[in-house]
Structure formats: structure tokens, C-alpha cells
Amino acid sequence: MQIILLHPRFQAKSLTLTSRHAVMMAILFLAAVISSTAMLYYLTMRHGGDIKWPFMRDMVASTTQDDAIKKDKYVKENLAAMAMKLGEMQAQLMRLDALGERVQGLAGVKPEEFNFKEMPGRGGAAPSSFGIHGSRDLGMTEFQQALDAMARDVEHRADYMNVVETTLMRDKIKFKLLPTIQPVNVSYNASGFGWRIDPFTGRSAFHEGIDFPAPTGTAIVAAAGGVVITAEYHHQFGNMLEIDHGNDIITRYAHTSRLLAKVGDIVKRGQHVADIGTTGRSTGPHLHFEVLVKGIQQDPHKFLAAGAAQAKIAAKAAK
Question: Which residue range(s) make up the domain with 17?
């Protein structure tokens, strides 16, 4: 393209425009249009409220209203999600409170020492705005993250409490199946576990249980819960009862005058199962009591002493 410039004072000049010049002019024109548009948008958004033109006020108001609608929708959606999460947490906390009370009872902790239904006391100095750790507002995203973290923490604690409850329950059941209560309500025993002088032969012999002397007819109770596996007359033990407590533990009650349980009966801890007598190889009315673990006689005093210590702890906790 060739352009001729005419002027009265100067000679005619001609300019030749190539395609390169045309491209550069187009680029400059587009840059000018974009810059003008950006400047106009900035001035409109920045100072649109101060301009008195009606169409400008309407445009700014419309844009502001759209932003407000979007923000309101965002807040409502987040509040609905958080309300749902809060409801789930409330249900989990109620379940955790009930679980805590059960664990508290199993552990023997008094309600006044630790109450799950009361908020723990909290306090501290007011946060200083001039210090390193000042206070600030919590944003929506941060609040959602804190809520999610708390929900996970509550769930983990509930799982942990379930494990603790199961362990305590298992230990309590196991303790109830141990022969830890004295089978006869007497304050002493006539013959302990171990070597002694046999009352019939006068020779040294190993006594495989302990003897509780008491008048004939005195009640004998099960030292622990279990199943009766023997209820018969034995030529040495007389009327004899044996109870299987599980875990290879068996208790034997000998020389009784009367058996109140039969083979296959399930007896409870402390249940009346027989009466004191002097049947079999006996010099007088008493109970011969044995504890066998895997068929081997153990010192019953170890089990009874553990039961007495547990009873003292329970009595102290109940006060």
C-alpha cells in the first residue's frame, strides 16, 4: 500500500506501507482498546458509586447484588454441611457419654470424681492484641477444618473407649471366675497348704488344700462361678463337689454332709452348693478346699488373699 502526503509548503511525499506495518498498527490499536477498556472497568468499579449517572448506579448495584447472592449461597451451603456434621457429632458425644459412664462403673471411679455430663472448668488470661499470640477471627474454611478434625477425634476416642470397656469387662468376668471368695464364713483355718503331720498316720505328708473347721450343716458357697463337673461320694474325700471355672481352674469341696448341686449345674459366685460334714477320711466336721490349675493343686491362700485385697479396694471406693 502506498500513501502520498500533500502540503502547500512541502513537496509531495509518498509512504509505502508493507504488511509488517499493517500488523504493527493492528497490534497497537488492539492494545489501546484493551487498555482503555481496563481503565474504564477499573474506574467504574472503583468510583461507580460516586458517579451520578443512573445507568452507572444500576450497573454497580447489579454487580454488587450478584456478588452478595453468590456469597449468601456459599454461606448457606457451608452452614447446611456444618449443621449436618454438628448433628453427627452430638449423636457421637451422647454415645461417648453413655460409654464413659459404663467404663466408669467398671473401673470403680466415683461419679463425683469424674462426671461425663459436666463441662470441665477452663480459663486463662485474655488474648493480647499486642502480643505474639493475639486473637483473630476464625474463617469459614478454618472453622470447617476444625469441625472435621473434632469429629475425627471424637470417633477415635469412642473406638478407644470401646476397647477399654471390652478389656475391663473381660478382666471383671475373668476375676469373677477366679476362686477368690472364702467358701466358708470362718475366721481361721485348721490346716494350711503344704507339709504337715498327717492326723491318721503321724507321718509327714503334703496337704494339698486348706481345712475350714465349722459345725456340721454350715453352708459352703462356690468360691467362683462355674459348672459342676463332679458331685459324688469319694472313699477319701467323702461327699465331694468339683466346679470347673474355665481356664483350666477347678475347685474341690470335700467331706461335706450334703451336696446341693449336681453335675452339669451352672453355679454363681457365692452360691450355696453344699454343707459342712465329716464324711470320708476326716477327724471332725470341716471343709477340705482345693484349687487345681491344669490338674495341679495350688495354694488356695493366693486366690483368697487376692479376693480380700480386691474387696478392700472396692469398699474404700464405695465410701
Answer: 2-67
Note whether 311 and 203 are same-domain residues.
yes
Tell me: do 59 and 161 sit in the same domain: no
What are the backbone angles phi and psi of residue 40, rounded to the nearest 5°? -65, -40
Tell me the per-residue pLDDT of 78-95, one tens digit each, with 9 for 90 and over: 777 777 777 777 777 777
> Is the residue at 132 inside a domain?
no
Virtual torsion, Cα 130, 135, 141, 144, nearest 10 deg: 160
DSSP 8-class letter at 118: S
Helices (H), the chain: 19-47, 54-107, 140-176, 300-318
Looking at the structure, do residues 249 and 169 belong to the same domain, yes or no?
A: no
Q: Compute the distance between CA of residue 230 and CA of residue 221 in angstroms, rounded to an integer.
A: 15
pLDDT per residue as tens digits for the range 113-163: 566 666 666 666 666 655 555 566 666 777 777 777 777 777 777 777 777
Neighbour count for residue 100 (Cβ, 10 Å): 20
CA distance 126 to 26: 64
Please indicate, yes or no, whether residues 150 and 228 belong to a single structural domain of this protein: no
